[in-house]
Amino acid sequence: MTTIGLIGSGNIGSTVARLAVDAGYDVVLSNSRGPETLADLVRALGPRARAATAAEAAGAADLAVVTVPLKNYRQVPVEPLRGTVVIDTNNYYPDRDGHIDELDDESTTTSELLQAHLPESLVVKGFNNIYVDHLAALPRPSGDPDRSALVIAGDDADAKQTVVRFFDAIGYDALDAGALSEGWRFQRDTAAYVTPYAVPGTTYPDWTARPTGPEVLQDALAAAQRYRDM
Ligand SMILES: NC(=O)c1ccc[n+]([C@@H]2O[C@H](COP(=O)([O-])OP(=O)(O)OC[C@H]3O[C@@H](n4cnc5c(N)ncnc54)[C@H](OP(=O)(O)O)[C@@H]3O)[C@@H](O)[C@H]2O)c1
Question: 20, 105, 118, 179: which could form a disulfide with 25 (CB 3.0–4.6 Å)?
Fold first, then answer.
């Protein structure tokens, strides 16, 4: 596996691209405005990076990352992602995304919505519960006592293993929260969402990154509450 295809190249997309390039992957970046608007980012990332349309990035991907505002998830190209493992970073912010009834009534989860949109892709929820600057700051080599873990959820064991190997290559351990339907346990405003990776008492924009291993995250997942119970 050599090429990471990014659908969305903003805060998270560009950061994942940087981590992937540093780990020796090729990356194909895309956004909504067109590849020419990504020229500066491609230049900064170097010869392993190029920009393309979203459909081209999807088609080139051995592993894809969908990292767009959730309201645009239906615009993610379907056909070129058939059979591809897709990491879904997206979170639901009604103020940004508008209201989505199935999420408001908690009858589904964000990643299950993306999976329904991409029925022949293998969606794995990941990268959604860490703030972008912390994602950039916390990679450590395998075995480092300060290595952090990222939480995943997904329905396909092989797809999850693909993501675990990618995380390992870019400097993170993985903690498996279970099936895609368990993704609510690390969705926005849960105990596992962003704060475990921050030094307590620090706040944005001086929100200091804190290495966070799987035990802390496991406890947070166990303490997760549904929105209706918050
Ligand atoms: N920021 C964080 O710390 C963080 C952490 C974890 C998860 N997340 C979640 O991850 C997702 C991305 O967050 P972000 O902060 O990276 O957002 P962002 O900085 O606003 O970037 C969004 C990217 O998606 C692109 N995009 C929008 N619609 C698209 C489409 N139809 N096809 C292809 N690309 C499209 C945008 O391109 P244009 O600029 O050309 O429109 C932009 O490159 C969100 O769901 C967010 O909630 C964010």
Answer: 20
Most informative mutation of 9, 12, 76 for ligand 1 (most atoms within 8 A of CB): 12
The model carries a pTM of: 0.98
Compute the Cα dihedral for 119, 88, 166, 149 and give only its sign: negative
Residue 173's beta-bridge partner residues? 149
Question: For the CA atoms of the chain, what is the radius of gyration?
Answer: 17
Strand order in the sheet with 149-154: 49-51, 26-30, 3-7, 63-66, 85-88, 122-125, 149-154, 173-176
3-state class (DSSP) for residue 81: helix
- Chain segment 72-114, per-residue pLDDT in tens: 999 999 999 999 999 999 999 999 999 999 999 999 999 999 9
* DSSP 3-state of 209: strand
Distance 91 CA to ligand 1 centre (A): 10
Question: 32-65 burial by CB neighbour count: b if 16+ within 10 A, else e?
Answer: eeebeebeebbeebeebbbbbebbbbbbbbebbb
